[in-house]
What does this fold into?
Amino acid sequence: MVLNMYCHGRRRMLPERHLHPPNLNRSRILYPQLRLRFERAEQIAGSEYAEKIILPLGEWENNVELIGFFEGQVVAELPTLCYDEDRLKERLLTLREKGLNEVQVDNIGALVLAKSLGLTVHGGAGLNILNTAALDEYQKMGLCDATVSFEGGGEKTPESLKSFCDFMRSI
It folds into this structure.
């Protein structure tokens, strides 16, 4: 399999070492994960060690062959605002048939839609989760994990970070 990627307007072949993602243990992760979010698919070369590769939904649609290639790492970032829920549902169903199983959401409506389609849902920073009570509520709604905002009050000490990490491991 040869993958051609675009870089700075020029086409180049993805190096062979990038064609075989490592066999990472993708069972329940109990440690911080390296998740990489890109704006465009051509930027993902060299990201095979990331637990998750996050691209906007439209980029996965335009590069559907990469979904199977990065199996288990693919996360589609859903639009923050959605004016046509039926169209978004169609797009997600089409990509689910191609192997997309995970999305990242930044609003409650997208969370509900993605869960109704049987997708694994990750919470983005747009959910503005500031405390464990908010995280508990999102977990009840079906969120599997979240990017938690550190904008909330409280002291940012190594002890508080350890406490937070212990909590995240428990969910």
In short: The longest helix spans residues 85-97.
